[in-house]
Amino acid sequence: MSNVISKNFDIEIPLTTVRVYFAHFQDISHKIEAYLKILSKEELNSVNRFKFSKDRIRFIFSRAILRILSGRYLDMDPNMIKFKYNEYGKPSFCNGDHLEFNLSHSGNMVILAFVKENQIGVDIEQIKYNIDCLSIANKFFSDQEINQLQNIPINDQKIAFYRCWTRKEAFIKAEGSGLSLPLTSFSVSLDSDSKAELIETNCSHKENIEWSLYSYRPTSEYISAIAVRGKMNSIEYIDLNKYLFQN
Q1: How far is Cα 139 from Cα 120, in angstroms, rounded to an integer?
Q2: How far apart (Å, rounded) are the C-alpha atoms in residues 34 and 125?
Q3: Mind listing the pLDDT tens digit for each residue in 19-51?
């Protein structure tokens, strides 16, 4: 497994590679008009429904980079890309050439991942240290996950909690059934950034070996997770702020 920060945009993704893009919302006020032009009517309607400016900018930025990057992979104009949604709201391309994607944002960060011919889900969370992680875990985590969390030193429990939360969210998004899949029906590891795994599910004794989980810290303030069905040979992390939106 190679974990690399890529500095180029290949237009082909090997079958066993996940390509993960992340970006911090910088001052993009000078680009808003250009970004708005590539959004669909439905997306523009969503923009107008946001009450706060920061939420509007985050939505515009997220949808714009999704369209820009997807346009490169699909060889299409960004504003011509069309999406469809399953009954639980998971998005996919109407004509995606076997390309799958998923997107998440939190605070001032967005993460977006692409893979060929495999289900994928991503989640990113801004780390907040003033939460009662054990209380939340008791409501939403499986018994195995709660036991894991309780056995972790107190000073490390907050990070472990977010490892667990992001991995569970990523798996639910990848699996595609939304909240119809109970959070307590499966368990993930949470004691290490480098050894993420789906430990077990109530659905199938073999399902855990069909999935790959990854954790990534784009900055010290955020933690993200990627879930993909299948065994991957490479996962590439690409910092968009370094070179994509500088002009």
Answers
A1: 26
A2: 28
A3: 999 998 876 767 888 899 999 999 999 998 998
Q: Burial, 74: exposed, middle or buried (Cβ in 10 Å; 0-12, 13-18, 19+)?
A: middle
User: CA 74, 78, 84, 89 torsion: positive or negative?
Assistant: positive
Query: Which residue would you say has higher pLDDT here, 54 or 226?
Result: 226
- Phi, psi angles (nearest 5°) of residue 9: -110, 95
Structure tokens given for 101: 């994607």
Angle at 23 between CA 186 and CA 64, to 5 degrees: 95
> What are the pLDDT digits (tens) for 198-218?
998 887 666 778 899 999 999
Residue located via tokens 């709201």: 89
Cβ-contact 59, 104 below 8 angstroms:
no
Prediction pTM value: 0.90
Query: What whole-number distance in Å separates Cα of residue 160 and Cα of residue 152?
Result: 8
Encoding tokens for residue 25?
């919302």
Residue 82 · residue 60 · CB < 8 Å: no
